[in-house]
Amino acid sequence: MSQGLPAAGSVLQRSVAAPGNQPQPQVEGESPEDDDRKVRRREKNRVAAQRSRKKQTQKADKLHEEYESLEQENTMLRREIGKLTEELKHLTEALKEHEKMCPLLLCPMNFVPVPPRPDPVAGCLPR
């Protein structure tokens, strides 16, 4: 094996011998200007692809941030629902206790029938 040359079959040898790394033979009718045009077009395409990937990554990052923000808001709202549900239960119980001894409800002059109330908690809970 000569010094400075990669071993046959090595990664470096294969990459040097890869089809895209070989100078293309001049096709009849193709000028150096055509080669320059191809190089410029490839470079322009490479830059456009990088820009597209960056834009796609930024969009994904923005969506992830929005997702996390909505998750936090959802958690906060669920806690608030829990607190309000407990407050509703407490106030409903307080009202029931008050109705047992309310002088306005116990007065014989108030013969207005009071229809039974539906359970207020059941109507407010999410399904």
TrEMBL record:
One GO CC term, this protein: nucleoplasm
Sample GO molecular function, one term: DNA-binding transcription repressor activity, RNA polymerase II-specific
Gene3D superfamilies registered for this protein in UniProt: 1.20.5.170
Name of the protein in its database record: Basic leucine zipper ATF-like transcription factor 3
Keywords, comma-separated and alphabetical: Activator, DNA-binding, Nucleus, Repressor, Transcription, Transcription regulation
Domain BZIP: 35-98
Biological process terms in GO annotation: myeloid dendritic cell differentiation; response to virus
Basic and acidic residues biased stretches: 58-67
Region (Disordered): 1-71
UniProt cross-references to Pfam families, sorted A to Z: bZIP_1
Protein family per UniProt: Belongs to the bZIP family.
Organism: Pan paniscus (Pygmy chimpanzee)
Source organism phylogeny: Eukaryota, Metazoa, Chordata, Craniata, Vertebrata
